[in-house]
Amino acid sequence: MAKTELYVVRHGKTMFNTVQRVQGWCDTPLTKTGAEGIRYLGLALKDTDFKEAYASDSGRAIETARIILGENSRGPQIPFRVDKRIREWCFGSLEGGYDAEMWGVVPRVLNFKNYDEMIDKETTFKEICEAIYDADTANWAETYDELSYRVHTGFEDIAHRVEKNGGGKALVVSHGLTISFLLNLINEESDVRMDLANGSVTHLTYENGEFSCQEVGSTAYIEKGKEIAQAH
C-alpha cells in the first residue's frame, strides 16, 4: 500500500483577507490576485497524482480547490468532496470586524497588554480559543473541546479514507488557523502560528494511525508555478 500524503493548502487570498477583516465562518470570494496565486500553485502541482481532493464547505476553499484541480492533468478524474469539519474557527460576534479589533480584545481577555505580548508568552491555542469563546457575545463560537474534536476527526477521517482506498496523495484545502491548530494537535510542541500564507502548502503523511509533518506553510510551489507560467 502506498503511504498516505495530504497536501494541505490554505485557501487563496480573499476580499476580507485583503482588507484585514475577521473571516472564520463568514466568507468572501478570492480576489483576482488571490485566484492568480492559486493558479500558479495549480501549475506547480499539475503533475501531482492526487487520488482524491477535499475542501471545507466555505466558498473560498471550494473555489481554491477547483482552480488547483482545473490545472491538474487528471483534474476531471479526481474525486472531490466537501467536509465542513475542516472549515475555519468560528469567531462568533467578532466575525467581519477588523483583525486588529479582535486581536486587541483577545489578549485583554487573557490579561495581556497586546497581541505581541500574548504570542511572546507562548499562549496556547486552548487559551486563545477560550478567550474567543468568552469574548463572543452571540454565543456562536465553539468550545475548545468542540473545535479540537471536529478538526482532528475531520482530517483524520480524510486521511483514513485515502489510506483505505490504497493510499497516495490527496489535496485538502482548509484555512490558516485551522491548519495551524491541526499541527498543534498533532504535536503539542508545534508553535502557535498565525502566519500561514494564502496558498501555502503544509505536507503531512499518515501512517499507522498517526500524522507526521514533512513541510509547513511552503510558498515555494507558488514561486515554481510563476516560473512555469513565465516559461510559457
Q: Secondary-structure element sequence?
A: EHHEHEHHHHEHEEH
Number of strands: 6
* Count of alpha and pi helical runs: 9
Number of domains: 1
**Head-to-tail CA distance between termini:** 37 Å
Classification by helices and strands: alpha/beta
Radius of gyration: 17 Å
Query: Which of globular, elongated, flat, extended, rod-shaped describes the shape?
Result: globular
Main sheet makeup? 6 strands, mixed
Helix content: 40-55%
CATH structural class: Alpha Beta
CATH architecture: 3-Layer(aba) Sandwich
Mean pLDDT: 96
Kindly estimate the percentage of residues that lie in beta strands according to DSSP: 15-25%
CATH topology: Rossmann fold
Kindly report the spatial arrangement of strands forming the biggest sheet: 3-2-4-1-5-6
Please, could you describe this protein's structure?
Keywords: Hydrolase. One of its GO terms (cellular component) is cytosol. Pfam families: His_Phos_1 (PF00300). The active site is at 11 (tele-phosphohistidine intermediate), 88 (proton donor/acceptor). The protein has helices spanning 15-18, 32-44, 59-71, 99-109, 115-120, 125-135, 144-164, 176-186, 220-231; strands at residues 4-10, 50-55, 80-82, 168-174, 201-207, 210-218. With 232 residues, it is α/β, with parallel strands linked by helices. The longest helix is centred in the middle third of the chain and has 21 residues, at 144-164.
Summarize the structure.
The protein has one domain: 3-Layer(aba) Sandwich (Rossmann fold). The protein is 44% helix and 17% strand.
Could you name the key traits of this structure?
six-stranded mixed β-sheet, Rossmann fold, alpha/beta, globular
